[in-house]
Amino acid sequence: MSFVIRMALREVRASWQRLLFFFVCIAVGVASIVAIRSVIQSVRAGLTAQAQEMTGGDIALRSNNAFTPRTLDMIERERSAGRIATVSNGVEIATMVRPDVTRPLTKMVELRAVDESYPLYGTLTLREGTYSYATLRGRGAIVRPELLAQLGLRVGDRIFIGSQSFEIRGVIASEPGRNLGAFTLGPRVIVDRADLADTGLLSFGTRALHLMLLRVPQQATLSVSQTLTDAFRNDFVRVVGYWQNADRTAESLTRAENYLSLVGLVVLILGGIGVSSVTRVFVQQKIRSIAILKCLGSSSGQVIAVYLTQVLLLGVAGSILGVALAAGIIAALPLIVGDIASMLHVEYGLTGPAVVQGLAIGLLVSMLFSIVPLLEVRRVKPSLLLRQDIPPLPQFDWLKWFVTAAVATALVAVASWQAGSVRVGLLLSAGFVGVAFVLQLAGIALVRAVQPLRYSRSFALRQAVLHVARPGNQTRVILLAVGLGCFFILGVRTLQANLLRDFEVQVGDDAPDMFLIDIQPDQRDRLARLVDDQNGAEGTPSLIPVLRARVTGVKGREVNLESFEQVRGRGSLSREYTITYRPNLQANERVLDGKWWPASPTTGDAAEVSIEESLRQRFEIQIGDEMTFDVLGRAIRARVTSVREVNWRDFRSGGFMFVFRPGIFDGAPHTYIASLKAPRDADVRARLQGAIVAQFPNVSVIDLREVLDTIQGIVNNVTLGVSVVGGLVLLSGVLILVGAVSMTKFRRVYEAAILKTLGASSRLIATMLLLEYGVLGAIAGTVGSLGAIALSWAVARYALDLTWEPAPSITVTGVVATAILVAAIGVLASLDVLRHKPLATLRAE
Amino acid sequence: MIELRGVSKTVQSGDHPLTILHPLDFSISSGQFVAIVGPSGSGKSTLLGLLAGLDAPTTGQILIDGTDITRLTEDALAKLRGEKIGFVFQFFHLVPSLTAFENILVPMEIAGRRDAVSRARQLLDEVGLSARGHHYPSQLSGGEQQRVAIARALANNPPIILADEPTGNLDSVTGRHVLDLLLEVHRTRRTTLVLVTHDHELAALADVRLVLRDGRPVETPAEAVR
User: Fold this and answer.
1) What distance in Å separates the CA atoms of residue A7 and residue A709, rounded to the nearest whole number?
2) CB-side exposure of A663: number of CA atoms within 13 Å?
């Protein structure tokens, strides 16, 4: 055994430089896995520990309507029985805020109204001073710093919320439970719940979330939660225990962790493919040494053990380097993405399990990928030291195939382990094999396609093309690794271009770009006049009546849901829908099935409803089915008379899942929404918004241009994220390229020496190298960009439902940049070839 | 004692079988110095390779100390070589990634000897290269490399030394030194020495001469020179 280890150490000493790049590849993969897992594991541990803060209490009750007396009674009974210790009532509303001065500035905020017992868990910290309920009392407000910056305000200034003025008394540094960088409609503003009624924001129809947060004695949490869940089963009240929140958070973070680390695994597998190809070349180069060892008495097993140990040593070194890299990345994280630790109230750093996993995977991948090429050691006959053997006829090597199958199975197992799911592991493996196969085929086709150039007049070009097609030139591995990196980056860039173009089209010149919501019936005409005055040239806004409703039952041919509880079992069917009524179809709608009603209003009880096609697909609701709705506590029965297709991207006329025939809601209270085309000029827009909010404080203004900016930001972030992945893959491609060049360099040096003695200048040899790697890079770039076009087309067409357009500038830039990159790196890595003096080289042979 | 019974070797050359060594019966007693002589392509190296178990004969048996090595597996053969046979090649065949000292260590490490390091030092000294142990083969001259190879062949104190034209790649003076070294080893350690050579003068020094031509012996193997 000591022979194996000593010999392996000596081999490492002799060849680590040649093998280095492949193990840097392993390091990059391990680093991504360890960094991703460590951060997410830390965050998960931190957030799970703060589950009560996240929930706001031991148990949270949430409702879109004010709690009914029945609910309140029930809570009161539990409290008297001592099963609930403290109740904290609150309301959350997205609303508009404007400074208490005549400036045309408004901002949508997420308002939270709280009572004395808030917060039940965690601490609300202010930038200066400490928070107490007294801060809010008597029309005080505390706000996030973004709001101050956006409206140009300071502590002590006043803001209008609804129809009331509030004094800003503090700046929120951190708020318990609000810590994941989730999507928000605007900065947080906290006021006293007692002041909320006067603002007029709770007027009918406003979208408010009513919250009741409970502190419950430890031993009663489960039973109280159960009692409340049972009691409110048919009400529109959601009961959530902190442990459920914790479970959900932990579950989704675990899923995120597993999926994101697959990125690292892909990089690692590429590194592994590099390891496999380098091992094959390595064994070829070591054939004589292997024969000598066998001649000196060592068995094939011992020799395989020597080289496997060498791979393992380098794999360990690569993995440790990866862990060190991960530690560096984590330390640098605050510089890149800001201070997550204080944003999430969690500490993060390398975690033990992540490090162990990273090391294990780095080692496993190195070993699995090198074992099959190392089996070639068995075929090396010591007799080749006496004379060049005539190679034996190739025989079917059962052991090799068996080991290959075992390695493939092990790799699928590793992928499944990393993904935390056998299905995903299998999918990833199949996807990888599929993509690799297609890239290989495309590579082979392109290598063939450039072969006519071998008859070119240019000597350098002829040689370059010959070299690309030469066996053992690592062409396949380089094509795979570089092509895959290119594929990722170009694919996501093309997709981004398509997505952004689509958004641009949506906010075209004639489309509405501002929405007003929560317009009360008595404000309708005045608001229309105001907008008309301010926005003269752009025409009258269209006002659409809306109500909110829930489906409480379906009696139909294929579904029969008798209670809300059963509807809830159907997932999103139980959510609150915004509904409307009108006599006619809109321009963005088409009846697929059934008949649209006549223009006259409905009479009697025979209500009619038209559903959007996805409801039929998902919930099997059919024409003729009778649906029951709860609209503001009133049960409405309606027969489904048509199924509509809605072009959601044309939102000029809005889009509704349920449209009713007019008549049934006459007299029922409802609100309006309006869409309008506001002026392009930012100041004029701001003035218009300011005027609307000043006169109609309860009306919320959604500026689509701002939303578009947000979406653009998200798309950019996602693109950046995927580009980082592609960058990592490309990096490993480059490493593999450098490694392949240095592995095969000895042959190059020899050939160059012969060419030099035959009269070739260094310049000619440099041109040959440049052309060779340029051709290789161009092929890799083309393979990658073809894949990227296919990928972006498929995603645009099938997942995002966009019309796809090619982005020729991205494709061309991608191919050219890849060719230049590969050519430059190939030549740089081969500088030795140019420097060697021919005589010394030929003598050494 | 090495015994060959009807040993032959035939290989496939293109479409035709080519017999490199015709059936041969021959025996070498312990401590003998045997020279195998003949022109290029006469089958000398093939025969030596067969004796070392580096290759398998097409027919016949090779017995070393009564063990038929043609029945041994690759790994058992490797073990046998490690214990009983030291090999010296025309082209030295040192492992290029190891120093001279390490090259001598390897066979002892494979055999698991505890005194490997001290013995390697001693052997290096015996071949007169104590000062060059840390050099790599590429930093040594041909004669030095061959001396290292001889030291390596002696490492496990094998009873048999097989040498395949050990001076063929050296100038005559260096070659003489190397040969003297081999003969001295044979004399002092009483090892069986089987030497393949073109050199009839050298062959004349052997106890027994086996002359091959086109894979067949041309003189009686028993002919004693001395």
Assistant:
1) 62
2) 16
The reply to whether residue A2 touches residue B109, judged by beta carbons under 8 angstroms, is yes
Residue A56's SS3 state is: coil
* Least Cα separation, residue A276 to chain B (angstroms): 22
- Point out the residue among B45, B80, B96 whose CB comes nearest to the CB of A386: B45
Phi and psi based region of residue A110 (left: phi greater than 0; alpha: psi -120 to 50; beta: remaining): beta
List the domain range (segments joined by +) for residue B158: 30-56+70-217
- Under an 8 A CB cutoff, do A387 and B81 touch? no
Tens digit of each residue's pLDDT (9 = 90 or more) over A280-337: 888 888 888 999 999 998 999 999 999 999 999 989 999 999 999 999 988 887 776 6
Q: Does A301 touch chain B (CB under 8 A)?
A: yes
Nearest-neighbour CA in chain B from A394: distance (Å)? 14
Q: What is the CATH number of the domain that holds B114?
A: 3.40.50.300
Residue B39 lies in a domain: yes
* ipTM greater than 0.90: no
Alpha helices in B73-211 (DSSP H): 74-84, 100-111, 116-126, 142-154, 172-189, 200-203
Q: Distance between CA A582 and CA A238 in Å, rounded?
A: 32
pTM: 0.73
Name the minimum distance, in Å, from the CA of B151 to any CA of chain A. 12
| Of B144, B166, B45, nearest in space to A384 by CA | B45
- Nearest of A589, A604, A614 to residue A638 by alpha carbon: A604
Q: What is the pLDDT of residue A341?
A: 62
Pick from A4, A13, A295, A304 the residue to mutate for testing the B interface (most B CBs within 10 Å): A295
Of A14, A298, A381, the CB nearest to B97: A14
Residue A480's CB: how many other CB atoms inside 10 A? 24
What dihedral angle (degrees, nearest 10) is formed by the CA atoms of A700, A701, A707, A710?
A: -60
Chain B CB contacts of A390 below 8 Å: 11-13
- The per-residue b/e assignment along B179-218, b for 16 or more CB within 10 angstroms, e otherwise, is bebbbebbeeeebbbbbbbebeebbeebbbbbbbeebebe
Give the per-residue pLDDT at B91: 86
Q: Alpha helix (H) ranges present in A620-761? A: 682-695, 704-743, 745-757
- Is the residue at B62 inside a domain? no
Counting as low any pLDDT under 50, the low residues of chain A are 180-181
Residue found by looking up tokens 């999507």 in the block: A183
CA distance A13 to chain B (A): 8
Note the pLDDT of residue A403.
92
**Residues of A with CB below 8 A from B64's CB?**
none
Q: Which residue in A569, A637, A555 sits closest to A233, CA to CA?
A: A569
Neighbours of A811 (CB within 10 A): 20
Say if residues A728 and A267 touch (Cβ distance below 8 Å): yes
Tokens of A10: 């000596």
Q: Where are the domains of chain A?
A: 1-55+244-387+397-420, 56-243, 436-510+704-845, 540-676
Which residues from A are below 8 Å from B105, CB to CB?
6
